[in-house]
C-alpha cells in the first residue's frame, strides 16, 4: 500500500538554489494516496503548487496557521500581534529585509516572515515581549503565535479526511517540520536538514534536497 505523504516544500522539494525540482512533476501527480503540502510559506504557494501538480488542494501553510482541506480553510494565529512585533522591531532599528518585504508578507494571514539578514537577537527580544515566538526555517524567521504547528495542522487534515496521522510518511528539512515528524508513522529528514529536524526524524537521509526526497518516494513506490 502506498502511504499518504506530508511534504515540506523549501529545502525538501527544491534544489540548493531554492528552485522547485522538476521531479515533483514526475512522481506526485500520480501518487496513489493523499499528498499534503505543509509549508512555512504563505497560503498561495502550496495552493498554486497543488493546482499545477493536478492534486487536490490539501495544504498546511504558514507553519500550521492556515489549513485547507476539503475546500474549507481555517486560520489560527494572531496576525495583528505578529504585525505589532514587526512594527516595533522596525521602530527599534530592525529591518525586515528583502527588497519586497511587503510582497513576502502581503498574503500572510497568521504570522510574519522576516529575512535571515535581520537582527535575530532584537527580533527575538521584541517577539518575546509580545509573547510570540520566532522560528528559523533556514529560509526566514517566522514571527508567530505559540502552539501553532504543522503537526497540529496535519491532525486537523486527518480528522477531516478520516485518516490517521500515523499512516503518513513525512519528509522535511527544518525546525518547522519537527512537529509533523512527531505525529506521523515514519519521518525522514533530508541531509541538508537542520539539527532540530534531524533529531526529530526517524531517519536522516544521505542525500540532500529533492535527491533525498526522491529516493524515499521511489522506494515507497517500489515496495
Ligand atoms: O517559508 C519558509 O521559511 C520555509 O518553507 P518550508 O516550510 O516549505 O520549508
Ligand atoms: Mg523546509
UniProtKB/TrEMBL annotation:
Residue numbers binding Mg(2+): 8, 10, 173, 177
For molecular function, the Gene Ontology terms on record are: magnesium ion binding; phosphoglycolate phosphatase activity
Class of this enzyme:
hydrolase
This protein's UniProt keywords: Carbohydrate metabolism, Hydrolase, Magnesium, Metal-binding
Active site (catalytic residues): 8 (nucleophile)
InterPro entries according to UniProt: HAD-like_sf, HAD-SF_hydro_IIB, HAD_sf, PGPase
Classification via Pfam families: Hydrolase_3
The catalytic activity of this protein is classed by the Enzyme Commission as 3.1.3.18
Reactions listed under catalytic activity: 2-phosphoglycolate + H2O = glycolate + phosphate
- Which SUPFAM superfamilies did the record assign? HAD-like
Listed cofactors: Mg(2+)
Domain of life, per UniProt, equals Archaea
Q: Provide the residue positions that the database annotates as binding substrate.
A: 150
State the GO CC annotations: cytosol
Q: Which HAMAP family match?
A: GPH_hydrolase_arch
* Similarity comment text for this entry: Belongs to the archaeal SPP-like hydrolase family.
| Role according to the record | Catalyzes the dephosphorylation of 2-phosphoglycolate.
User: Which PANTHER family does this UniProt record tie to the protein?
Assistant: HAD SUPERFAMILY HYDROLASE-LIKE, TYPE 3, PHOSPHOSERINE PHOSPHATASE
Name assigned to this protein: Phosphoglycolate phosphatase
